[in-house]
Write a structure and sequence with these properties.
Layout (H helix, E strand, L loop, with lengths): L4 H16 L3 E8 L4 E8 L7 H16 L5 E4 L2
Parallel strand pairs: 2-3
Antiparallel strand pairs: 1-2
Length: about 80
């Protein structure tokens, strides 16, 4: 079963205010056939040393709660 893009976008909408407080943002790039959500970090989040921690501690957790079928999250440039 394919992952619902609307559910992923709703979850990302929950994450955006957290990132915006630090001058950043996040954009959905795509969802792979292997159920990996690919995102692009924007603003201050792009290239931030803490970005990897943000992805695993915030983004992956919120997306997994919203859609348990997601196998992981990957940042792309």
């Amino acid at each position: 079963m394919a992952i619902d893009v609307n559910i992923v976008n709703e979850a990302l909408d929950q994450i955006r205010p957290i990132l915006q407080r630090d001058g950043g943002g996040i954009e959905l790039v795509d969802i792979t056939d292997e159920d990996i959500v690919r995102v692009r970090l924007q603003g201050h989040c792009a290239g931030c040393p803490g970005a990897r921690m943000t992805l695993s501690n915030i983004v992956e957790q919120i997306l997994a709660q919203a859609c348990p079928e997601i196998k992981g999250v990957q940042a792309v440039d």
